[in-house]
């Protein structure tokens, strides 16, 4: 069955499940620091049956991308961008407990931002979704030192590594880190995401490539094809 938008408003993007009026209201409240109003919109979507994964993708991720564009165009200040980020982090913490998690299946995942990466919301959302899908998800957050991450991978022996790369200047660092990680655990699945990586995959040369995951739906499709096989 095809998913339908929540509500009756005209959509700006046919791939988005949230009406444009709802999305615009959310973004307006987000950049004005109205956390209570943002939470109210999230609660309405949940009450109408929208899955948490769709709220993460079509509301949280999409709104932060728009906030980022507004900042790049000098339409909002960096302070406003930080407020929007902080509100979103609060909403993630309040939304996640309302989701129904699948039973644990014993597989482990490590999700982190590479060294120097301060934007951690994308990786936080991925870690949350993995946990809801039955994974034991170990979330390391922003600016993870390479040696500390490699040590943890050796200790945990996870089945999946997810890296967030928001800055294009950190893409090569992510490649080096993945090469080192796979040298110790060749069977481990690896994915990367964030605005710092483009295309469908991250080329690792002799180690083939690692898929670039731009949203939660792509992650779930990848896991169905590879981790759940």
Automatic annotation (TrEMBL):
MF terms (GO), sorted A to Z: cobalamin binding; metal ion binding
Domain B12-binding per the UniProt entry, residue ranges: 106-229
Pfam families tied to this protein: B12-binding, B12-binding_2
Listed InterPro entries: Cbl-bd_cap (IPR003759), Cobalamin-bd (IPR006158), Cobalamin-bd_sf (IPR036724), Meth_synthase_dom (IPR036594)
Membrane-crossing segments per the record: none
The protein's name in its UniProt record: Cobalamin-binding protein
Source species taxonomy: Bacteria, Pseudomonadati, Thermodesulfobacteriota, Desulfovibrionia, Desulfovibrionales
């Amino acid at each position: 069955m095809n998913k339908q938008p929540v509500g009756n408003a005209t959509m700006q993007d046919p791939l988005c499940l949230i009406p444009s009026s709802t999305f615009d209201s959310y973004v307006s409240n987000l950049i004005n620091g109205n956390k209570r109003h943002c939470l109210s919109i999230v609660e309405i979507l949940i009450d109408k049956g929208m899955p948490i994964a769709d709220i993460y993708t079509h509301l949280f991720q999409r709104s932060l991308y728009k906030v980022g564009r507004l900042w790049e165009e000098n339409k909002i200040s960096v302070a406003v961008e930080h407020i929007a980020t902080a509100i979103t982090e609060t909403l993630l913490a309040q939304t996640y407990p309302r989701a129904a998690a699948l039973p644990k299946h014993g597989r482990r995942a490590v999700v982190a931002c590479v060294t120097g990466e301060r934007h951690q919301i994308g990786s936080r959302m991925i870690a949350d979704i993995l946990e809801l899908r039955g994974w034991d998800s170990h979330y390391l957050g922003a600016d993870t030192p390479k040696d500390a991450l490699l040590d943890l991978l050796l200790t945990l022996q996870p089945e999946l590594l997810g890296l967030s790369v928001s800055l294009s200047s950190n893409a090569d660092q992510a490649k080096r880190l993945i090469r080192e990680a796979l040298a110790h655990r060749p069977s481990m699945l690896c994915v990367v995401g964030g605005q710092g990586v483009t295309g469908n995959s991250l080329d690792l040369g002799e180690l083939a490539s690692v898929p670039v995951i731009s949203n939660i739906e792509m992650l779930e499709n990848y896991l169905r094809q590879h981790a759940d096989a």
